[in-house]
Design brief:
This protein is 79% helix and 0% strand. It is an all-alpha fold. It starts with a helix and ends with a helix.
């Protein structure tokens, strides 16, 4: 709501200075609102794209764990990742509780993909192929996607969350889901963005 009021106030002030009519003021408000909406949509798309990129690495993570007989759950690693994310996010102006909820959503969604694949592979093992190193190959890629997620969140928070943020995130999810790896699926993507979608 504050976001929408700010758009209108800004446009009204500009038109008042220029001595424009009420009709011109309304048109200016509409134009500025459209521009701001487009920019906000780009912010939601950046966050959703980063989350989708992160999730699309999970089939490789699952395969490596499968081949090495490693557990999906890694509480120590997860705690370290959560702390690092919260520290990085708060340094960029993101509320610590929001940051914590966002990274936990990401972890839950990541494990959704892994558990789903593992359960399938117990019934029908995947073809044997080379697997990627978790520490040297996969985690650096996950970290890059996570950094893009942090940057997108920081931009969205700094700009202010529009009243239709929920709808914008859903539209961005719709777009991302069209090209999402079938091994991931829409449900984990939705879950990974639960706290992002609830931002106000």
């Amino acid at each position: 709501m504050r976001y929408t009021v700010a758009i209108a106030a800004s446009a009204l002030a500009a038109c008042a200075i220029a001595g424009l009519s009420q009709q011109s003021v309304s048109a200016a408000v509409s134009r500025q609102a459209a521009v701001e909406h487009a920019v906000a949509s780009e912010r939601s798309e950046a966050i959703v794209t980063a989350s989708a990129s992160r999730l699309e690495l999970m089939p490789e993570v699952a395969y490596t764990k499968y081949r090495l007989n490693l557990p999906i759950e890694d509480p120590v690693r997860e705690k370290q990742a959560e702390s690092a994310f919260v520290d990085g996010a708060t340094a960029r102006g993101i509320d610590a509780e929001l940051a914590r909820n966002v990274i936990r959503d990401q972890m839950v969604a990541s494990k959704m993909v892994q558990y789903d694949l593992m359960s399938r592979w117990k019934v029908s093992p995947p073809p044997v192929r080379p697997y990627k190193d978790l520490a040297k190959e996969l985690r650096p890629e996950i970290d890059q996607a996570t950094q893009r997620l942090t940057a997108g969140l920081a931009d969205a928070v700094a700009a202010g969350i529009p009243a239709d943020w929920h709808q914008q995130v859903q539209r961005s999810i719709d777009i991302a889901a069209r090209t999402l790896d079938v091994a991931v699926g829409r449900a984990p993507l939705e879950r990974s963005l639960a706290s992002v979608e609830a931002m106000t």
